[in-house]
């Protein structure tokens, strides 16, 4: 992702409000395109779906939320492995091999997500709840598959550096989903609404993949490379998997503890927490853009300079480069944290007005405020985890992610056992804070002795 940041930073340095807006929009599309689509779906459900859906609106809501949740909880670990594989291929200037890796992983994801979708959809007893149950089943399956393919393409298409084009694709997909829900939902009820929403996702997937073919035309199909990387970087896989579990643990617990059962199946929803959470997650975007454009692009050159010095320069020179690297990392994290704190505090203060304007008077303002505060720690944890990845400290990243997951899960279960609906969001805060503390300790200790670690590795110790 550092390459994306450098490109966007070049544009930003030319000055002008138009370029600033363009960079911000491009950064948003790259780091949060699918998130925006998911939140748009929630917004459609809350504001507009009720106008056209006369049957099972809760099932429509649950279908979209569960598709996004389980797409991440099942496949996110493999996304990290795939990203590492493609990064190495691009570094070695093997574009055709990168194209092959993309096509192979897309086909694998398509088949695997279709199987998962069938396992989740077939047990649903929809005949008594829907007028067109088969249309719903097919549409929900297509939606789940398209979402999974979208996650894969999200990071890969950033290599194209066509940021305006990527942004337009996401806007087009969102518009198709919006109109699809309204038009097909009115004509074909809930099954049509899901089909309309899935159409926007499928459009995005098709166009994004078409954009990659000009530069990354595949040479063949093989998953051997992916599985080799999976064996080699198992802690990277586990970190990615547990990170998704950590961010969804409280939602899943509260679905079954406090939520309402959706007619026709095994799903539960808890809008009192789900809606504030989906909105709060979006407030990560400013700090993610800052990380991509500033924090990462300041740290990476200093890390590269330090690595070049090791084994080739004097001890004093190595220490100077190490201090510069550590200083850049600290400054970036500090400034990014200040930005996220400003965003979070402002929205916490404005939560009653913002929540009701976006989601109506039923929004849970107390939960919204708590999850907005939790996002601050989530942002910090995510940045720290990426820096651990930079230093290839995958084992430590896994431990920190496990802390996030375990604390969030345990606190959520505790909240559910005592029936503490007024405490919704505290488990998310606790998990993010604990995970950030663990990641921060690992990163601080490791980067201060990184020169000694490298010397030991070079000596074969």
Beta percentage is under 5%
The biggest beta sheet, please? 2 strands, antiparallel
Care to count the β-strands? 2
The Rg value, from CA coordinates, equals: 22 Å
- By DSSP (H or I, 4+ residues per run), the number of helices equals 16
Overall geometry comes to globular
- Unreliable stretches, pLDDT < 50, 5 or more residues? 1-8
Mean pLDDT equals: 85
Termini gap:
32 Å
What proportion of the residues is helical, as a percent range? over 70%
Indicate how many domains the architecture comprises: 2
Element-by-element helix/strand order: HHHHHHHHEEHHHHHHHH
Structural class by sheet pairing and helices:
mainly alpha
Strand order, largest beta sheet? 1-2
In short:
With 461 residues, the chain is an all-alpha fold. It is built from 16 helices and two strands.
Topology:
Elements: H1 2-13, H2 17-52, H3 57-91, H4 95-121, H5 133-156, H6 163-213, H7 224-232, H8 234-258, E1 260-261, E2 268-269, H9 271-282, H10 285-309, H11 315-349, H12 351-359, H13 365-390, H14 394-418, H15 426-448, H16 450-458
Antiparallel strand pairs: 1-2
Helix pairs in contact: 1-2, 1-10, 2-3, 2-5, 2-6, 2-9, 2-10, 3-4, 3-5, 3-6, 3-7, 3-8, 4-5, 5-6, 8-14, 9-13, 10-11, 11-13, 13-15, 14-15
